[in-house]
Amino acid sequence: MNISSMASSSSSVVVVDDDQVVNKYDVFISFRGVDTRDSFTSHVYSALCRKNVETYIDYKLERGHEISPALLKAIEDSKLSLVIFSQNYASSSWCLDELVHILKCKHRNGQLVVPVFHGIDPSHVRKQKGSYEVAFAQLQQRFHIDKVKEWRDALESAANLSGWDSLNTRPESKLVEAIVEDIINKLNSVYVSSSSSDDDAKGLVGISKRYEQVMSLLTIESYDIRVVGIWGIGGIGKTTLASVIFTRLISRFEGGCFLPNVREEAQKHGLNHLRTKLLSTLLEEETSSASNMVAGSTFARSRLRRKKVLIVLDDVNDSEQLELLVGDHDNWFGLGSRIIVTTRDIQVLRKGANEVYEVKELDFDEALQLFQLNAFKNSSPPSTDYIELSERVVDYTKGVPLALKVLGSYLHSRSKKEWESALNKLKKMPNMKIHSVLRISYDGLDEKEKDIFLDIVCFFKGEDRSLVENILDGCDLFADIGITDLINKSLITIIENRVWMHDLLQEMGWEIVRQESKDLGKRSRLWIADDVCRVLKTNTGTATIEGIFLDMSKMRDVDLNPEVFVNMYNLRLLKIYNSNNLIKGCKLHFTRGLQCLPDALRYLHWYGYPLKSLPSNFNPENLVVLEMPHSQIEQLWSENQYLDKLRKIDLSNSENLTQFPDLSQAPHLESMNLGGHRNLLQVPSYLEYFDKLTVLNLSGNSNLKNLKAIPQRIQYLDLEGTGIEELPSSIGSLDKLFSLILRNCKGLKKLSSNMHKLKSLDHLNLYGCSSLDNFPDLPMEIRYLNLSGTAIEQVPSQIEGLSNLQILDLGNCRRLKTAPKRIMPLTQACYEDYKPDIEMVSFMNCLNLDENARDNLMEYAQLRVWRMATAVASLRPTPADEDEQSQLFVCCPGNKIPSWFNYQSEGSSISIKLPSQWFRTNFLGFTLCVVVAFNNYKDYSSLDFQTQSEFTTSSGESYKFDTKLIGWVGNEGWDSFTVVRLVDADHLFLWYDHSFNLNVLKGDERENWCTNLRNATEVSFEFKPVDLFSDPVESCYVNKCGVCLIYAQDQDSTIVMDEDVGKLTVGESSKSKRPRQAYKPTGTSIFIDNGDEEEEGEPQPKRN
């Protein structure tokens, strides 16, 4: 089963009423009743109806002496007119008036017209011969000559159209089939070509895109039998989408059935009733007859197997429903049949569906459009105040169509004051119509799934999935399968291994908890600070309470009763935290002590725990996670504790802790954080045998001199700021070690000679290891290497062989004087199977670098840019790459823009005249460079560059785009605010960012940019230094900048790199003028446009 989803940037969600889905008429039939009413016309009409083609014939209305306005309206409301010419057609002025009006609609509105010549020669109709000649002889006596001429012209025009002759297609049954098939094909073309704006006007916002996406999964033209699921949360538009698809496709099938509300109907009437209804519809039998059929009888199956059908089963919530209704579909239905199933639970589709289409929320613009259609009934908002209020509603709904329609209709014609009141009310309680629809999914959960859902709603939204599963497994909730079921039912999603849910679903969950009781102490979960404080201060907690999360940043200090937790003996989850990291300490005080904590606790997080120890009567055997950072605790417990369930412990920065807690009875421990303990002298030997421990943080333990006991399966080891002097040789056996942090280990003088054996090592941070001046061989797999602040005098030679290295930080290496020609690997293999990523080399504050080293660095940067540009240009972006970026960054001391930047300017901005035809298909993008002057800059602040580019066309139109280019990550870690390093020298920053290569932009964005920008004649760039929060950095400024345009070149002039020695060789060109430099890294020649080559009308570079 494949799952297809639509990204929000291109998604469109549909909400319509049933009467909006069906057009008034597909076909209008014009015929002479006395000739064909009970014969040929009735056969055509029946065949069209069997194909679910909405067909109008004029005996629905009473005839008068002249054609009625209602009949004229019926013609106008039809997409196609079928004109059946017979022997006596021309004898009816009524028929002739119909024909005239039909042709007017054809010319005015593009209505399709299909003539059928039944028992008459088309030439007799065209030239009014035979019976038509006789008829017109009589008409001329009764009507004005102008009227008669109008009829003659109409007959001639209609007879000249492509149509059907009954004399050429026999028997008549085949003629009827051919006519109906022709009509269906023409109508399909009409539906496909209908514009999305028409759909939007009807409330079908963006239906065309979604329709096409599902059509690609249905593959209508293939002869297999396919089941396609449409999956998503309640109110997202699944039923509407299925309705539109059914209406537009049903005419292509020999039969069909749309079964709405399967879940509800099955509960009310049973599945046998639904099966009878489905069978009677598909076999075109009366319900009473179908109910007498034996379920699954051979005869019924035989009939169905010969019939190509379209079935929609709406709101299925149980695989048994699917099995009973469509069963073994490959053997039940005819070739080419299609079955569409809408559901909130993807598990229903696991076995039976070929494809699954996941319905996503609307993006902001679509949501605003849909809301305003309902709030203002197709008119514009009366004032800008309503636009702002509309945007607030859209932000609240987060793209759920049902919510947009309900709230739009509710707010229609209301005053601004009422809108404000309604929005304030929504903050306190949900709209019950929306709530009731969303709650259907919750009500279908079992009791443990409901507990998991409400725990996530109140406490764990946005948390790591593994952590949540560990905690809830400890609560005996079988979280692994439970979370999977919630995902299947569209109640939660997992993004980057974190648990998320739609805001409306969270509000629904909150309301469920609120409805448990008006008494706060009798609710199962408390998460609002005021509610928690009220219960704690009044000591009114009860056994009903299972979870409390208290954000102390939202409360004042309070002294609590020692017995505050006595009655909460079912409390499983307790988190007392501070979302404002700048506020230290605990606002809960226990001047009379704390009598107890519930033994039922599985999750205990208490920031700044104010007491010296846990209550003596507390039994921690059920604890899964114990987190007490910045606590006042001195001793965790006085005797050995059985901690078989404990998975994570965090006692970081609990500086009063006098001894390492005894965790010998916690064999399943996975994560331990004991950072910031100056009293820790050694690690207990038993840790070596903890085979589940993967994360160990001992940072800031300055008295820790050696590290003998290291768990063998450790993945993340943080020894920042410890007193360690050397790494043990046994470290080479840690084949799972992924990240090793040794920041600011001032006494570290050498690394283990076995470092190269760390095959999983990806991240090595040696920042601030000021005694370290040489390195052993490092593992080839390493991607991030930070040597900033070490005592090295030259770049270690083995770095050149680290083929996976992407980030190399050599900042603040004050003794560093030289740099090799190739600082990082630059071979062809490095860019095969290239994936978007960031590459960075920083020599920040390496002020002793000689001129040759800086030249080598710029030469390296030039070649690296071309490597990346070519690799990125060859990518075929996929939806998974959508948020990824490729960016090259190089930094070193210097005050000159490299000479190969052909456009240069003083100051923080540059404006250049673009060469003619600058935006050709071989354009690879811009490389940018700035020189930055620093004035007492402190490097604990991150530095980036907010960059605005503005493209201007010859007609004066301008297009602005913003991006943030990386600078450097400042000093960080435990000493980030105590050790300040100043930057005073000028530095050069150089980037290649693929977002400046317009040819790699995807989808509509790329198409729109290309269309607008290929006509640009000028571009400007402005660079502003900003910090991590995008605030301006005052202690530095850009005083020079440069721009370089890069192209792939298919001519003879190239510069190639000698892979062995890094030399540049200039190839000869057959042209008298060649680009200043070029480079051929992967079989594609690349050159820099230097603006020197004169072309007629081509502007030259603007150098300020």
Distance between the termini: 61 Å
Q: Which structural class fits the helix and strand makeup?
A: alpha/beta
Oligomer: single chain
Number of helices: 30
| Radius of gyration (Å) | 38 Å
Mean pLDDT: 82
Biggest beta sheet summary = 21 strands, mixed
What is the number of strand segments? 44
Question: Can you tell me the overall shape?
Answer: globular
Residue stretches low in confidence (pLDDT < 50, at least 5 long) are: 6-23, 60-65, 292-296, 826-834, 876-884, 974-979, 999-1005, 1050-1088, 1090-1104
Beta-strand share of residues: 15-25%
The helix content, as a percent range, equals 25-40%
SSE diagram, text form:
Elements: E1 2-5, H1 18-21, E2 25-30, H2 33-36, H3 40-50, E3 55-57, H4 69-76, E4 78-85, H5 93-109, E5 112-117, H6 122-127, H7 131-142, H8 145-159, E6 164-165, H9 172-193, H10 196-201, H11 207-218, E7 226-231, H12 238-249, E8 255-259, H13 262-269, H14 271-282, H15 287-291, H16 298-305, E9 309-313, H17 319-326, H18 329-332, E10 338-343, E11 355-358, H19 364-375, H20 384-397, H21 401-411, H22 416-428, H23 432-443, H24 447-460, H25 465-474, H26 479-488, E12 493-495, E13 498-500, H27 503-514, E14 525-526, H28 529-538, E15 547-551, E16 558-559, E17 573-577, E18 588-589, E19 603-606, E20 625-627, E21 648-650, E22 671-673, E23 695-697, E24 716-718, E25 739-741, E26 763-765, E27 784-786, E28 807-809, E29 838-842, H29 851-873, E30 887-893, E31 903-906, E32 909-913, E33 923-934, E34 937-938, E35 943-953, E36 958-968, E37 982-983, E38 987-993, H30 1003-1013, E39 1016-1026, E40 1036-1049, E41 1055-1057, E42 1064-1066, E43 1078-1079, E44 1085-1089
Parallel strand pairs: 1-11, 2-3, 2-4, 4-5, 5-6, 7-10, 7-11, 8-9, 9-10, 14-15, 15-17, 16-18, 17-19, 19-20, 20-21, 21-22, 22-23, 23-24, 24-25, 25-26, 26-27, 27-28, 28-29, 29-30
Antiparallel strand pairs: 12-13, 30-38, 31-40, 32-39, 33-38, 33-40, 34-37, 35-36, 35-39, 40-44, 41-42, 43-44
Helix pairs in contact: 3-9, 4-5, 5-8, 13-14, 19-20, 19-21, 20-22, 24-26, 24-27
